[in-house]
Specification:
This is UPF0056 membrane protein. It is a multi-pass membrane protein. The chain contains nine helices and no strands. By secondary structure, the chain is an all-alpha fold.
């Protein structure tokens, strides 16, 4: 395996679990099935594809331009890591202890007043609210931006960004497949099974949030030591 391919694979292995945990497509599919209840199979598949493409666009913009946008406002990488880590960890904590709260929030985002979406053309809702904020919300965007700012010192930036972008693309493919077969996922997992998956994903996400937070704190400490030595 060439070094470039190895670096890309390593960054993919870092990014994909984080994105999968925060998006949680298996749990979200339960609500997606409610939002598309009574619709033709062809329409559901097309909607799932559109939602996945829109979600991919949001993730890629966050990965490639999120750090630059925040940097424009004078926010340092380490501050971004600490903030992103706190957001991710707090979201994971709620998902871990109160999965019902997360489900209720997503259901409110995906449905209109708790009712099945009745718009004649569901594609009108492929971006808002089904892609954002239902599938890729503030937490997912925070994870994407935090990942983009966490390039390991030993890894070329291009290889790292390629791997993270590949992870986002893989995540979009997973969303398209799981949403397209949401009814089967519901029948297979049920509410209890989905909550178990959500808690496992939340535990992984909590660890990732703590790791991102720790890297930000470490960065501030290293900068402080360098300034102290220079003085």
């Amino acid at each position: 395996m060439t070094p470039g391919l190895g670096n890309t694979l390593s960054s993919w292995l870092i990014a994909f679990p984080a994105l999968f945990s925060i998006i949680n497509p298996l749990g979200a599919s339960l609500i997606f099935a409610q939002a598309t209840e009574g619709r033709e199979r062809r329409e559901v598949v097309e909607l799932a594809r559109q939602v996945a493409l829109n979600s991919l666009g949001i993730m890629l913009v966050s990965i490639w331009f999120g750090s630059w946008i925040l940097g424009f406002f004078g926010i340092s990488i380490n501050a971004l890591r600490i903030t992103g880590g706190l957001v991710v960890a707090s979201r994971a904590w709620v998902m871990l202890l109160q999965p019902e709260t997360s489900e209720a929030r997503k259901e409110k985002q995906a449905l209109q007043g708790g009712r099945t979406v009745t718009t004649p053309d569901l594609r009108e809702r492929a971006f808002f609210p089904l892609a954002m904020p239902f599938t890729v919300g503030p937490g997912s965007i925070s994870v994407a931006i935090a990942l983009s700012s966490s390039t390991p010192p030993h890894m070329p930036t291009a290889d790292y960004y390629l791997g993270v972008s590949a992870a986002a693309t893989t995540m979009a493919v997973v969303v398209a497949i799981v949403y397209a077969y949401a009814e089967r996922v519901v029948a297979m997992l049920g509410v209890t099974g989905a909550r178990i998956v959500s808690r496992l994903a939340a535990l992984i996400l909590l660890a990732i949030g703590v790791q991102i937070l720790a890297s930000g704190v470490e960065g501030f400490l290293i900068e402080a030591l360098k300034q102290a030595k220079a003085a």
